[in-house]
Amino acid sequence: MQLNSFQQQAFDKQRPTIEKFGRRSWMWTIFFLLWIIVGGYALYLQIADGHIVTGMRDNVVWGLYIANFIFFIGISYAGAVISGILHILKVEWRKPIIRIAEMITVIATIIGPVFILLCVGRFDRLHHLILYPRLQSPITWDVLAISTYFTGSVIFLYLATIKDFAIYRDAKLKVPKWRQKLYKILAIGYRGTPSQKKHISISMNLMAVIIIPLAIIVHSVLSWIFGMTLRPGWHSTIFGPYFVLAAIYSGTGVLIMAMWVYRKMYGLYDYINDKHFIYLGYIMLVLGAAYGYFTFSEYLTDWFGSEKWNSEVIHKLFSFSEYGWWFLFANVAGILLPIFIVAFPKTRKPGWIALASLFMVAALWVKRYLIIVPTLESPLLPMQDTRLEYVKYSPTWVEWALTFAGIATFFLFFTLLSKFMTIIPISEFGDKEKAPEKITKPEGEIIPA
Amino acid sequence: MIVLPAKLMAQTDSSAKPEVKEATTYAPLIEFVSVQKNDSSVDLKTSVKAKINGTLTKLAGFKIEFTIGTDSTAKKLGEVVTDSRGVAIFTCKPDQLTTDAAGKLNFKASFLGKDSIESAEELVSVKRARLEITPLKEGSLLNVKVKLIDLSTGTGTAVPETDLGVFVKRLFSPLKLGEGKTDEAGEASIEIPNNLPGDSHGNITLLAKLDENEVYGNLEAAVTQQWGTPVSDELKELPRALWSSHPPIWMLVTFIILMSAVWGHYLVIIIQLFRLRKEEPKTIS
Fold first, then answer.
1. Which helix (H) or strand (E) is B64 found in, with range?
2. Which of B110, B126, B142 is the last residue of a domain?
3. Contact assignment for A148 to B268 by CB distance below 8 Å
4. Which of A373, A378, B140, B261 has its CA 20 to 30 A from that of B171?
């Protein structure tokens, strides 16, 4: 395939990244693998001894695993919704960042459901979900929605990468033969003819249209697992949109962080420039404000109603001897911090926005934990077994080890995928494109390059 | 965390002297009752519990020995092992029953004890008696005539002024329908409702009971009568509902539409990709 000058420039810049694994990549890979091994040992203990090795008991039957599940499915929104919307709106500045967004989507959608599997008590009956599904059960909806969503995410990423696979195929990269062969297979004979371009364009448009409602349904279904249960703090009509909003919000945060890391790691300042951070920062600000509004509305309604069980959960969230500090962190770092950092021109810089994203993403993870645990610690029926471990949930090292193993797997997949395909899509720079803005010196970094 | 595997694999020191603890024993609590039935058999029921660590625990898997007669004339009837509820029931056949000079039946349930549970025994002494149950239908009125007869003297003697109850057998415990007092002839007549749900043929099992009587203990008589409303036990097809095994139609339709829309899109895209592959130029410029 013939490349224009901009495509050639982008390809030459990233060619060494996919041709060589590099010492730094090896070190990261080994580091992540070590975490995964620790997680593997924790998993062995959990399988051998049962769920007794976790902090989950009769009352608090969900804990870290479910919080991780919601978190990962949430961040998968980066590719699905953000990339989908920007594609439909034909926003030009999206092009250098969509690959990262779509990679986040696919990887997060693989890792998220694994945490559900870790939570399943009777693993031997897992296939019953497929063999004897009850269409009335939100769990069945979830299984169907997530598998459909995962398929869609993979197709979306693949469609956006076919042209690049064709470029890799024709570029005679210095990579092993199996990889060259794989690029050839994945390129499915794309040569850039007008009709082939049309097929990809039609497919991309269709995918962009369908992935947005699909992603909204997936996270709504996820929220209904809670919302359709008569539990204090869960049984709320706004849980669907609240979850969807929080998911897009955290997805934006992870996208900004990934952009910041890749820009710095591979020196992609010409492609991922300040404009991308600022625009995504604006999106984050709007989402943060909307998320703050939903949060306020949700807790105000529960508090004002003074219903006994809701009040008990509210009390736990506001009491500093219980979850008060975490709740404060979730709201300050999750709502106020990103808004203030983006609102003021002085801090509206890539480094600051990435830092705010880091805190926001952490805060949203805490928020997911606070949705699950305090409610389960406030059952409607009196607890039969009042041992402390039954009344109060406390994650064990097994749960933490598997959580960090999940995060390490996320980073490992990201590392491996970014060595298989270029982070900046080459083919997106068409003949009529403007040249990428030339920025040789990063501006506004709080950490010097 | 790092030392955990080592801790898990660590062996206990076998040379260390084991700590000698004083053995704790528990005294069992036995409930023992006899139920004389109208087929002349007697059910001997025991329920065994013990207070262990402050909790009343049902003792399952323990042997109970049943005997009849006083110490000198005691005759072993049999042994039964307690079930998961700590209950053991022995049915004593009419030919196994022997009365003493006063016409009394003397039963003994002996708990032999095991491990930390001490042995114990309980006695029951009741007069031989029988309840007779006769269903009577007068027009639309349904009555149950119950007669209490004392058999301790050898010749049946009617027992007056005694409270009796009439029940209908249900899935779990019997449902009380009414009660009455026996007259001079030892008889009581109790009216029962005519709309009781029965089995698929309308059969209901009526029970007459004398409970915890000081002289006769527990007595029971049963009769099956076609006086109930037939209720079929065949499984009917459940309606489409949130709680049944079949989802509501609207839910099914919504699901099919949504899934078809999404997977239909996927299919169109896959077809597009197949076309793309087919259109690969033969000669590459």
1. strand B63-68
2. B126
3. no
4. B140
